[in-house]
Amino acid sequence: MSNAERSFGCDHTVPSVARTWTRNAVLAMLPAIAESFDIIEDVEIIVSELVTNAVLAGCMATHLVLTVNPSCLRVDVRDDAQGWPRARDAAPADDHGRGLSIVSALASRWGVRRLRDAKEVWAELDLPMAVAKRLT
After folding, report:
1. Phi and psi of 130, rounded to 5°?
2. Where exactly are the structural domains of the chain?
3. Which of 10, 51, 84, 120 is 20 to 30 A removed from 22 (C-alpha atoms)?
4. Domain 2-135, classified CATH 3.30.565.10, yes or no
């Protein structure tokens, strides 16, 4: 099992910075085969959506943890913003409201848990067999 983690602030640049950091971190943790790149693209989108939600909710800080084990890649985004994330039914003309639906479509599983002074939104992506075999 390997992991990477980093703390970020909470301004409009953070989703982009977190996405780039995620790509580089996951590239270092997964084997350099075609199946890994599909996972990397999906996890970049998931991180972008979850970090954007934290920023829009008014957080002061975010903390991102990526964990790879032979069966899945897990993303944990912790933030100190008030409120609780919820999936919405966004209309085609809506500017916002699709983030958790996108996460749900890309992730194998996702959820939210309350921490002492924060919340954590997590998502797991099952690894393709070709990737998993190279991790063991």
Report:
1. -60, -35
2. 2-135
3. 84
4. yes
